[in-house]
Amino acid sequence: SRGRPREERPPLLRKRTLWTKVKHFFNPHTPLSEMMGPADGSGEHKGHTHTHASDEETLKLYDPKNLADEGVKITWVGFGVNCGMAITKFIGGFYFHSQALIADAIHAVGDLISDVLTLSTVRFTHKKADALYPFGYGKIETFGSFMVSFILLYAGFQIGWSSFYEIVAPIIPNALHDLMSLIPIHSHSHGATELMAHDHDHGDSQVANINAAWLALGSIAVKEWLFRVTRKVGERLNSKVLIANAWHHRVDSLTSVVAVATISTGYFLNIYWLDSIGGLIVAMLIMKVGVSGVVQSFKELIDKALPAGDARYTKIEDSINVILMKKDSHVLIRELSILPSGTNLNLVLKLGVSPFDRDYENKLTLEQMGSIGEYLKAELANEFHNIKHVSVQF
Questions:
Q1: Which of the listed ranges 56-65, 134-143, 171-180 does the model predict with the highest average pLDDT?
Q2: Cα angle, residue 259 at apex, residues 170 and 250 outer, rounded to 5°
Q3: Which residues pair with 337 in a beta bridge?
Q4: At residue 132, what are phi and psi to the nearest 5 degrees?
Q5: Stretch 252-276: mean pLDDT, rounded?
Q6: Where is this region: Disordered (predicted)?
């Protein structure tokens, strides 16, 4: 029944819940709030999932001046390890002729670019709004996210098309070969190049070197180590950002799991296109992230307001109601629009009098309205440091 606690649900429901958790776990871009369980019961916040909630805690974790802090130290260790692994995978992918490993490297580079974007814009976007930019500088981060997502989408399409060509090359007619060769896509695999250069001789395609699988396997081991260490430090310091970073380390290793499976299977069965299957799967994951990031950033650039069900909307709305109750209980919210701008928020608020207090509306003076508006702005600024602009109307 609906009233039963979760642990007493029928087995079918328990299995369905478990399956949902498994799908979320193996989806490398499931919002972290859903993986760890939403802290506020909403789980509505979506965005570029590799953005590490650029707030004061994140700023502190990435500040080299705080290296004595173990949270800062493990954050920079993770960042450095990710840089090294991305470079190693790229070199290994080209050297060992592995589409899957190159795709895995592109995925890792996308994460690194997102981190660098966060580091380079977090201080700038936290600048106070001024006369020239009354809504703050948050759109700088939004535009950066849009560009990063677009680059990811293009890179994913490149490696995906190259992998797809490797798979279908032996079975398509020469006329279709010539048509596909007109698409200006740079191939990352010597096998695909040979197919086009040697009059479509399909016997020369290379099986990916098994050493590529060892590189991907090493990446999984390192990511798991980073997950465990970062989570341990995060739990000890009670840091949500560190715990989120830890889960990123674990979930991002999915692409390496795909690479290991397809490279090793293709090598031992002598099926060269299995590596390309792995490259195609990883490329699809990369494109999924790219499309999601482009769409989300575009919506933010054209000032789409937060939905009423968003956790941030609910929290701010509740705070405004509490503030109004303290200042003047006759006044309430008529309309509320919250516009995200990077990590910042801008509010457009319309206040009014309760329908049951129509007489009070005639008693409100302009001075009282101005006082309520200024009080509301000051209280919101104290409670939410990422609110850059509040427009209050009556």
A1: 134-143
A2: 155
A3: 348
A4: -75, -35
A5: 83
A6: 33-55
Looking at residue 387, the DSSP 8-state letter turns out to be E
Q: Angle, to 10 degrees, between the axis of helix 99-125 and the axis of helix 210-237?
A: 30
Write out the CATH class of domain 311-393.
alpha beta
For 290-299, b/e burial (b = at least 16 CB within 10 A) is bebbbebbee
Are 94 and 188 a contacting pair, CB within 8 Å?
Answer: yes
Q: Which residues fall within 8 angstroms of residue 5, CB to CB, at 6 or more apart?
A: none
Q: Domain 56-301 carries which CATH code?
A: 1.20.1510
Residue type, 1: S
Neighbours of 80 (CB within 10 A): 10
pLDDT in tens, 7-46: 444 343 344 455 555 444 444 444 433 433 333 333 333 4
Sheet holding 344-353, edge to edge: 331-341, 344-353, 387-393
Q: Mind listing the pLDDT tens digit for each residue in 335-370?
A: 999 999 877 889 999 998 877 777 777 777 888 888
CA 24 vs. chain centroid, Å, equals 14
pLDDT of residue 274: 81
- The ranges assigned to domains in the chain are 56-301, 311-393
Pull the structure tokens for residue 161.
């098309």
For residue 145, what is the enclosing H or E element? helix 139-168
List pLDDT tens digits, range 85-96. Answer: 889 988 988 888
Helix (H) or strand (E) holding 352: strand 344-353
> Among 258, 211, 272, 248, which Cα is nearest to 103's?
258
